[in-house]
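Now for a specimen:

…
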Amino acid sequence: MLFILFVNSNKIFAQKDTITIGAYVNSLYDFNLTDNSYKTEFWLWMKYNKNLKLDSIQNQIEFINAKSTPHIQAASTNKKGNLNWYGAKYSGEFEKNWDVNSFPFDKQKLKITIESGEYNTDKLIFKCDDKNSKLNKLYANSLDEWEIKNYKFYIKNIKYDTTFGDPTLNKNSSYSAFNFEINIIRKDPYLVLFKLITGLLVAFIISCCVFFIKPINVDPRFGLSVGGLFAAIGNKYIIEGKVPVTNQITLLDNIHNLTFIYILLITILSVISLHYYEKNNEASKRKSQLIDRVSFISIFLSYFIILFFIIY
């Protein structure tokens, strides 16, 4: 019985057509965080038995996460001994949900999935050309804002909980898929962060200067706090124009919220200091001055200590 099962399993396996597939990534460009996309250019090839009858090999594949059908710049099909060899150069725009929770210290995974669009795994399977699937090394070191850490090419079948109406299947279906992933990290994240929050830091420092103004000078004293608040809000809107808004609290959100809270505290302490100063006696004025000195030191130091822990 074991022998019969083994022979039958070999026959079943032999009935499956196999396509060896590989890719060579030339370039990655136009990383668009607000549009959730990026563009790439790569060579794709497939090798398969010359007896395998396919009307058009390029129509047998589907780019799962492409925003539109990739453009074929060059394509050819040739016979190489007992094999048919198809090669084409593709360029296109692909979807990417950028993870910006830790921006600009973010790590991203760019993934492209190419699926057998017509034949399920009962009829056709992919085999990865591990030896020749690579990333252009010359290009890998030329990205301005990103550093490529590693990449991999692999085959993973995609299962669907539908038969797509195929009467030969029952309940579900599975299709062979070729994947390549490229892991990237942002270059000089601390410099990027400093450039993004420079206006925010200046707004906070300006707000701290109110403690050196006599509380009785209401207009400049409270005007600096209000001006710092509006500058911080403006900085937040500028950043949101560059970094997509998410429903999660990001690193930049925490930094902005910290600044908003501290400017509010500065305003509250200014009101308290003004309250004591307006009592118009020496003891109250000295208490007002003490509040200003202690407030400046504690607010200034605690803000940057908390900021350090938020970033690190």
About this structure: Residues 35 and 192 are 20 Å apart (CA to CA).
